[in-house]
Amino acid sequence: MFVILTVFVCLPILTLQLSSDGCNLYESCVPIRTCDPIIEELQAAKATTNKEKKREIVNYVKSKICGAREDRLICCPVENAIEEPVQQVTEQYLGDFVNIFHDISGQVYAVSENQLLIKGFTYDGEGPDAFFLAGESGTKPNARATNGDIVLPYPYTGEEYQYLDSNIPILPGFNGNEEILLTLPRGVTVSDLKWLSIWCRDYKVNFGHATFQ
């Protein structure tokens, strides 16, 4: 069991979530040690010598991680679940990015009360300390008042950050070919936000921002 839990803790977490805890309608977010189907998958991954099979199992388990990393939780199938029609995700357009530096572009949508989706996102990746920053007032970031703004880390791993945290993930470059899913920290909803920025903390510079409608 110790080996299984160690493997679980080391796995990175995917960004896509279907509910506030990351599980779908037929799953429950529970401690990994209580989820027999996932334990069986991890045991199979440990036992197999087939690298492709091991990779498939690991990717599957990654997709089932929920909650905060330190809680060691997993989306576990609920026994005897009654199937219900799958609801379509509704996208609400919020705004387009305005480029200031580094080729920023893209369209921002709300896909749930705690998630934003960016389509067609471009950024040249040249900022030394750039990340997504959102605000609850104004129309764009204020260099003299950023400490209270909201860090939206990408990729999302279940960990929340404050503005001065030194380990906030730094954004790489994007060419517009992938969609970016951002998850808001607990206690914050999309309706609280007024704007989203690509912000460089080192230089206190706004590379580009979208003001929400």
What does this structure look like?
The chain has helices spanning 2-10, 36-47, 51-62, and strands at residues 27-31, 65-66, 73-77, 92-96, 98-99, 105-112, 115-123, 130-135, 150-152, 174-175, 180-183, 195-200, 205-211. With 213 residues, it is of the alpha+beta class. The strands form 3 sheets. Strands 4, 6, 7, 10 and 11 form a 5-stranded antiparallel sheet that branches. The protein has a 5-stranded antiparallel sheet with strand order 5-13-12-8-9, with no helix packed on it. Strands 1-3-2 form a 3-stranded antiparallel sheet, covered by helices on one side. α2 runs antiparallel to α3 (51-62). It is elongated, with a radius of gyration of 19 Å. Residues 1-20 and 80-87 have low confidence and may be disordered.
In helices, the fraction of residues equals 10-25%
Can you tell me the residue ranges where pLDDT is under 50 for at least 5 consecutive residues?
Answer: 1-20, 80-87
Class by alpha and beta content: alpha+beta
Radius of gyration: 19 Å
Order of helices and strands: HEHHEEEEEEEEEEEE
Q: Compute the number of strand runs.
A: 13
How many distinct domains? 2
Largest sheet: 5 strands, antiparallel
Oligomeric nature of the chains: single chain
Please indicate the percent range of residues in DSSP E strands (runs of 2 or more).
Answer: 25-35%
Q: In whole angstroms, how far apart are the ends?
A: 50 Å
Number of helices: 3
Shape: elongated
Residue-averaged pLDDT: 83
